[in-house]
Structures are given as C-alpha cells and as structure tokens.
Specification:
Layout: E1 19-20, E2 29-30, E3 33-34, E4 46-49, E5 55-56, E6 69-79, E7 82-88, E8 96-102, E9 116-119, E10 131-132, H1 133-142, E11 151-154, E12 158-160, E13 164-169, E14 178-182, E15 185-199, E16 205-208, E17 229-231, E18 240-254, E19 262-278
Length: about 290
C-alpha cells in the first residue's frame, strides 16, 4: 500500500503533536455496536480490516464477528505548537490531512500506527497498514488471469489490396467474477468484455464486438459473414506493425455499495503483430 509524503514539509514526528480541537459527530450505533459510519458534513468514514486477513472467498459479505476498524480523513490546522485536528474532512486532492483509524472511538482507542499526516489522493489506497475496500477489490481483480488476445487473421500471412481480410481473436474474453474479504471489508469484481480494437498498421482502426471471435473457416459455406473485416486500400514496401487490444469494463460490488454494481475501472491487453499487404496486378494476354 503506498505511503503519502507530507506536502507542507512537516516531518512525520509532528504526529505526536496532534491536538484534538473539535471532534466529529457521534458514531451512529445499533445496540451500542458501531456501524462504521460517522457523519460530518456528509462524509462517510472508511471501514478497514487488519493486515493478514485478506483472502479470496466464495461468500463475500459473510457475517463477521471480529473487531471492526474505522478510518477517516481529518481537517488540520498548522499552528506554532503543532497540528490541530478540527473534524472529519470532505478531502480535497492535494491537501494535507490527518488520517486516523480506530476501533470504536476516534479519540480514545486509536489503532496502532495512527494517526498519519498525509496528502489526500483518491487514486491510491488510504495510507497506513490497514486493509480498505479499494485494496480488497484490487486483490480480487488480481486473482483473475486475463489472457492477452491471440490474433487470428484470414488470410493468415499476406493480405491483398481490395480484398476483405477477417480479423478475430482466439483467446478467452469472458471471465467469472472474483471476490475477496478482509474482516468486515469485502469486494466482488466482475469483468465485462467490451470490444477488441485492431490497429491495422496504416492509421486505420477496426473495433469488433459481436464478431470479435468469429473466424473464417476453410470448411465453412461461401456466404460466411463477419462484422470484423477490413479491406486494405494500398500495399506497403514493408510489413506493417499492427496490434489487437482487448478491453474489459470492471464492475464492483463492495461492503460500501452492497446491492449495487459500480464501475471499478477498465482492463486492456494488447498483442502486436505484423501484416504484409500486397497488390495483385492483372495480367492481360494479347
């Protein structure tokens, strides 16, 4: 997990000078058990888990009876005597905050290793040793072994100007969902194939979805069709550097979005290939 550096140049020892000036609203509870949600200006606290508990699972969201850990970004004010915490923040990218984690009370039973003075960056996981939802989702996604596209063309070697060539991939494009859990934190990721983009080597591109895997068959009927075809307009003196890129949208469902699929991001894999294009000249006998 990436650590953030302190943008305002204060050394890490300043953490020992942190003073609580104004705390956040009280934790919402159910029978005195924390829910992991503390509201201050409508900012949701992150739920986290201890290191070493992260693993793949077939039952994401299964009941968890162990200790729950909660974290949040807190606004800070730098003074002559240290850093004052003034409440849970709605963090802004690039600004400096105190990131704190605790069991039930953010000002009493603080988790070891916190608080941390850090710069907020939503692209990376929250700082420190604890496991958070983004890391669990990444762990689940990393368990899926995506195949680079295996390019198949017809003709297989030399393509002819003005004659349609077929493009297809002979590799896996559909993958099952994967889930992981760490304590109360869980995530399920589900890849959804989008399309294959062919860079044809001459500046043109061909995007194939429905027929991305449709190959020309020498034993097939004369009326075979595919939407993934292309006819070159000119030849080249050298083989053209082409490529096939498979794209997937990654959907996620987590402990923070249970019952709702949201977009985690995308995955793209590229395979390079060379394409020879020739022009056939008509021969006329007098």
């Amino acid at each position: 997990m990436r650590r953030h550096t302190l943008a305002i140049g204060i050394v890490s020892a300043i953490v020992s000078l942190v003073t609580i000036v104004g705390g956040p609203a009280a934790a919402q509870t159910d029978d005195d058990e924390p829910t992991g949600t503390i509201w201050d200006d409508h900012t949701l606290v992150v739920t986290a888990a201890t290191p070493g508990t992260l693993s793949l699972t077939d039952t994401p969201g299964a009941p968890y009876d162990g200790p729950r850990i909660y974290c949040a970004w807190f606004s800070v004010v730098v003074t002559s005597t240290g850093v004052d915490i003034v409440g849970i923040a709605d963090p802004t990218v690039g600004d400096t905050y105190v990131f704190n984690c605790w069991y039930t009370d953010p000002f009493a039973d603080i988790y070891p290793g916190y608080p941390i003075v850090a710069v907020f960056d939503p692209v990376v996981d929250p700082p420190g040793p604890l496991i958070t939802t983004p890391e669990v989702a990444r762990f689940a996604l990393d368990s899926i072994v995506f195949e680079s596209p295996v390019a198949v063309t017809a003709p297989a070697v030399t393509h002819v100007v003005g004659v349609e060539s077929w493009f297809a991939v002979d590799s896996e494009l559909d993958y099952d969902a994967a889930s992981a859990q760490a304590g109360p934190v869980w995530a399920t990721v589900r890849p959804e194939f989008r399309h294959v983009t062919w860079d044809l080597g001459n500046g043109d591109r061909l995007v194939c979805t429905d027929d991305a895997r449709t190959r020309w068959s020498t034993d097939g009927p004369d009326d075979q069709t595919s939407a993934c075809t292309y006819a070159y307009r000119s030849s080249g003196e050298e083989a053209m550097a082409a490529s096939a890129t498979a794209h997937w949208t990654i959907w996620q469902q987590t402990d923070r979005t249970a019952g709702e699929w949201t977009v985690w991001g995308t995955v793209s894999l590229t395979t390079p290939l060379s394409i020879d294009v020739v022009e056939l000249e008509a021969v006329i006998n007098s």
